[in-house]
Amino acid sequence: MYRHGTIWLGGSLIGLGVQLFITPHRLLDGGILGIALILQYLWGMHTGCSMILLSLPVFIFLSIVNRKMLISGLYGMLISSGWIELLEPMRGWLDWSLLPSALIGGLLIGCGVGLMMCCETSTGGLDLLAQWIAQHKRWNAGLLIFLWDTCILACGSWFFDPLRILYTFLTVSCAGLATSLLLLWKKNPSYWMEKTKPST
């Protein structure tokens, strides 16, 4: 029950970050979500549906190498893409400027992705692939996601003005930081509790 609640919470944070802070300013994100946002801005495609379609190649790969991760990943992707579609009417509710929107949107998305990855699921194909590589190579999945996000944003710079791309890098940096910290906390929660305990 705790795991399901955490996954739903993570999906809702991603949906809020996307619809309240990212899409009103036509900012991007990395990974499958970032590609889906590019498709939405250019051709009006639904972000959640695009995430599902773009993740299919990775799910086919996982069906061969790790079916348990496939099932868990499908669940997380459907939850996150569902929240993004469900919260679409909230787009434009907040009239915040570009800088706080980039910061808060990135933190919300990063916390959402981090919570889902702590439960061994994710929002889409590239996050799942990062988890699979991290398990087999002992690399930090959050760092892998950040590197892939940077590549996707470099491609997005061909279609959007430099200011949006600059603030998008800020969004991705905040998201990557939040995801990495949550994954580090998961690996050793007692260490972080000790570090944050007030001294007597």
UniProtKB/TrEMBL annotation:
It comes from the Bacteria. GO terms for cellular component: plasma membrane. It is found in: Cell membrane. It is a multi-pass membrane protein. The chain crosses the membrane at residues 7-28, 40-62, 69-86, 98-118, 139-159, 165-185. InterPro entries: UPF0750_membrane, YitT. The keyword Transmembrane helix applies. This is YitT family protein. It comes from Marinithermofilum abyssi. Keywords: Cell membrane, Membrane, Transmembrane, Transmembrane helix. The lineage of its organism: Bacteria, Bacillati, Bacillota, Bacilli, Bacillales. It holds the Pfam family YitT_membrane.
